[in-house]
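Two proteins, back to back. First:
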Amino acid sequence: MPEWKDKLIELVPEEREEWLIEDSIYLAFSWLLDTLGEAVRSENWDLVKRCFEFAQWCFGQEEKDLWNSAGVSFYEHLADDPTVERVVHRFVKRETFEDVRGLLEFMDQHKAAERISNRYKETGE
């Protein structure tokens, strides 16, 4: 089993069956974004934290498929859901946000990127 699956099962075991059948890290991130949105709306902060932890883990790996999938299938879509956008600064390291900000801007999410950046400034993070 790929290392990313092991990590995802470790962090989000409640969806173990889904992760076992998923072969694409890119599709897994798409599914994880949906999970993240639901978790934010239901204020399941533990699950929110674990979703972001998985993305951060992938983003920090040397294998291109892992860091690239985190970027293009997760981070560049954080502003697609306004509910998720409002909590990004609480769960994404500011350094990571600065690294992926261009992806949001590429997706024509300039205003969202600025709002997130301002939230970091407001909270002193």
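And the second protein:
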Amino acid sequence: MKKIEKVLGFIAIIIILAAAKFWLKTDLLFFRLLAGSGFGYALARAYTGFAGSVNRAYRTGSTKLMRTLMFMFFITAVLMTAFLFGKDPASYNLWIKPINIGLMLGGFLFGFGMSISVCCASGVLTDLPQALPRAFTTLVFFMFGVFIGFPIQNTASWVQDSWFSSYIGYRTMGGVFLPDLFQGDGFEGYLGGLIALGALCLLFTILSH
């Protein structure tokens, strides 16, 4: 990257933040802009994408990114456990989604599409500056998928009805919330859920090695 590009980048950031401070209607929106900018910068600098971990392993033989993501998942789970422990999970409207053929079909479609385009949703945003035609094409079809898929998601029984459920009284949708499965651990199931998730992350890390 040329020095002038770095200077122009910093100038653009300053202008955007200054304009947002005056134009955005609430402080919450400004805070979200700051958080999103920081997250985007971190992703771009680290060249981190979720689909990218699998693509990099297949194309280069390196599983370092895959192992890094497993570590990130576990650390995030630890932080969320500390945040949720002792509180009513229902008050946070957690995304506990059904497990069914819709999930499996969506996973395959997403996996094939992101393998072909070499990026996922976060990867599209990090790839736009350096691989514009491919990333922009992916972004367009990503939006098509959202607008076509959401009506089906909201109405189809094979997407709404779950094969498995860990329901314990405060959710209406099916799916598995790991702490539900370990209610006898003395920590409202969070310790058992955290250990189970840690074991899965460790297993994938060992397999990636």
